[in-house]
């Protein structure tokens, strides 16, 4: 089975990709403009905000990558597709941005010591341009948020939590650029040269918080942590309320990628019901917005405790029966 691109992605995904790409190009151009203005005006806070803008470009680019990878079909080698490429890219971008930020802050300390005077007029116009452009980008991203209706939930839909995260991140960036704008106005009126250095550290602190959150989210995906917005207890009790379900064990929920979650669970039944696994899998996917659901049903004669159930490292013999029997159904999409 070879990996291949889906021929006709959904119209919502095409629109989402187009908007994300447009915002990425817009902010990329703005990054070079702000960086050039910061270098010419000798303003470290403007340069730090330019690095913050570069972080936006990386973040939106990562989310654009996630949307594109959502159209990649699983292969025999990558059975879940290439969704884990997103956190790997995020980790790379975080360390790259932190290296640039450290260089700018070191220069800011040097210029505070020599009492360098930045060009406040250019700072004012450049920061005003940045704020206006980010507001425009925020409105462009408004159309990428939506909730998929109907049964089931698929990875990479235009209801992605990662795109919502981009909007929240850009909203915080507008506040950070507002610090630069206030700094330029203060310099214009009072001429205090130390204000630029202090403001650059404030912007750097905001950027550090953003990069730490991105890095932490990437580690959670790689460590297969349960999604923070899903309650394991709620899922457990929802399964327990199903008729004829006596016990629930080996419940696992993990994150595969951006807005893509999977669940596997063992349930004990009091009465045989061959269709329960399929019904329960569909219910879990629809109720908790899961993309993959695997349910193993244990009949009374098959009951086992979690400690006695064979795992991947156990030496129990492997059955060569057909993989999809009536008492075990695995539904993916």
From TrEMBL:
Listed Pfam families: Cation_efflux (PF01545), ZT_dimer (PF16916)
| Mode of membrane association | Multi-pass membrane protein
Q: Which UniProt keywords apply?
A: Ion transport, Membrane, Transmembrane, Transmembrane helix, Transport, Zinc, Zinc transport
Which Gene Ontology CC terms are recorded?
A: plasma membrane
Task: Output the InterPro entries linked to this UniProt entry.
Answer: Cation_efflux, Cation_efflux_CTD, Cation_efflux_CTD_sf, Cation_efflux_TM, Cation_efflux_TMD_sf, CDF/SLC30A
Instruction: Name the source's superkingdom.
Output: Bacteria
Question: What is a single molecular function from GO for this protein?
Answer: zinc ion transmembrane transporter activity
Q: Where is the Cation efflux protein cytoplasmic domain?
A: 227-298
TM spans, by residue? Answer: 20-41, 53-72, 84-102, 122-141, 174-191, 197-216
Domain (Cation efflux protein transmembrane) ranges: 24-223
- Give the subcellular location: Membrane
- Report if keyword Transmembrane is assigned: yes
Q: What is its main location?
A: membrane
* Record family assignment: Belongs to the cation diffusion facilitator (CDF) transporter (TC 2.A.4) family. SLC30A subfamily.
Record's protein name: Cation transporter
Q: Which organism is it from?
A: Pajaroellobacter abortibovis
């Amino acid at each position: 089975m070879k990996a291949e691109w889906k021929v006709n992605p959904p119209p919502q995904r095409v629109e989402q990709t187009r908007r994300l790409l447009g915002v990425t190009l817009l902010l990329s151009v703005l990054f070079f403009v702000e960086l050039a203005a910061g270098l010419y005006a000798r303003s470290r806070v403007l340069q730090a905000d330019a690095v913050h803008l570069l972080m936006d470009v990386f973040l939106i680019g990562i989310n654009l990558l996630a949307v594109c990878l959502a159209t990649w079909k699983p292969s025999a080698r990558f059975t879940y597709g290439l969704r884990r490429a997103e956190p790997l890219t995020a980790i790379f971008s975080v360390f790259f941005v932190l290296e640039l930020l450290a260089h700018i802050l070191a220069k800011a300390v040097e210029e505070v010591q020599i009492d360098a005077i930045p060009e406040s007029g250019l700072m004012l116009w450049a920061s005003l341009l940045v704020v206006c452009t980010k507001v425009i980008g925020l409105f462009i991203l408004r159309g990428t948020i939506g909730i998929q209706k109907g049964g089931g939930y698929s990875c990479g839909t235009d209801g992605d939590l990662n795109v919502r995260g981009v909007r929240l991140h850009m909203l915080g960036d507008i506040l950070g650029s507002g610090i630069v704008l206030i700094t330029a106005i203060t310099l214009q009126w009072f001429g205090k040269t130390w204000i630029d250095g202090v403001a650059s550290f404030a912007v750097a602190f905001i950027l550090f918080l953003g990069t730490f959150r991105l890095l932490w989210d990437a580690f959670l995906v790689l460590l297969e942590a349960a999604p923070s917005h899903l309650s394991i207890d709620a899922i457990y009790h929802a399964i327990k309320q199903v008729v004829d379900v006596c016990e629930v064990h080996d419940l696992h929920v993990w994150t595969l990628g951006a807005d893509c979650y999977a669940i596997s669970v063992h349930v004990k039944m009091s009465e045989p019901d061959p269709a329960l696994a399929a019904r329960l899998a569909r219910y879990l996917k629809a109720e908790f917005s899961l993309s993959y659901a695997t349910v193993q049903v244990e009949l009374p004669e098959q009951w086992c405790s979690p400690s006695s159930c064979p795992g991947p490292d156990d030496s129990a013999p492997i059955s060569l029966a057909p993989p999809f029997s009536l008492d075990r159904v695995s539904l993916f999409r």
